[in-house]
Design brief:
With about 160 residues, this protein is of the alpha/beta class. It has 2 domains: about 55 residues; about 90 residues, Arc Repressor Mutant, subunit A. The chain is built from 5 helices and 6 strands, in the order βββαβαβααβα. Strands 1-2-3-4 form a 4-stranded mixed sheet, with helices on one face. Strand 3, helix 1 and strand 4 form a beta-alpha-beta unit. Helix 2 packs across helix 3 and helix 3 crosses helix 4. The longest helix is centred in the C-terminal third of the chain and has 13 residues. It is globular, with a radius of gyration of 15 Å. The chain binds a DNA duplex (13 and 13 nucleotides) through helix 2, helix 3, helix 4 and strand 6.
DNA sequence: GCCACGCTATCTG
DNA sequence: CAGATAGCGTGGC
């Protein structure tokens, strides 16, 4: 069974995903879309519909390296909330700068929600475009995507 | 090996 | 308030 690749639309961008079953190998943003499937949770997320990204795993969180620990900590940030690089660093017992480096090299944004990690003063960075980070945070703060799927509380 | 990073606390004018 | 300085962990060269 080969690794699947596909993309879905997110505003002006396309989210490319390389994955297999519940394991995501690589996510990246591009101006161009490609044909192929993406995991249901990501599809829903990009559409701004209720999505549970915790059903997916990322290769980035495998292992006991410092980066893997950082990625696991970042995955625990609740949808709609943010943490600073420094807070994440203290969570895993490392330095803020290491967190910045880990985010910059995050192979699976969205699955590992690096957009929820912001600088102490301001936004911090995001590649390829800070605009994506702002859009994702705005969407999560709006709340729809965070709503549990089984028609629940919904504030 | 060395170096550039999506940072931050602290110190110095 | 602006600039310098030190400290982290990795991938790339």
């Amino acid at each position: 069974m080969a690794i699947l690749t596909g993309s879905c639309r997110l505003g002006l961008w396309h989210v490319h995903v390389a994955w297999q079953d519940d394991l995501v190998y690589r996510v990246r943003f591009s101006r161009e879309g490609i044909a192929g499937p993406v995991p249901d949770a990501i599809l829903r997320y990009c559409a701004g519909r209720p999505a549970d990204l915790s059903t997916l795993r990322s290769v980035a969180t495998e292992g006991e390296t410092t980066f893997a620990k950082i990625y696991r900590a970042v995955r625990e940030i609740p949808c709609g909330e943010t943490r600073t690089y420094g807070e994440v660093a203290r969570m895993v017992g490392t330095a803020p700068r290491a967190v910045g480096a880990a985010m910059a090299r995050n192979p699976t944004p969205i699955v590992v929600p690096c957009h929820r990690v912001v600088a102490k003063t301001g936004m911090g960075g995001f590649s390829p475009d800070i605009e994506i980070k702002e859009a994702l945070l705005a969407m999560e703060r709006r709340g729809d995507v965070c709503t549990p799927e089984k028609g629940g509380v919904n504030r």
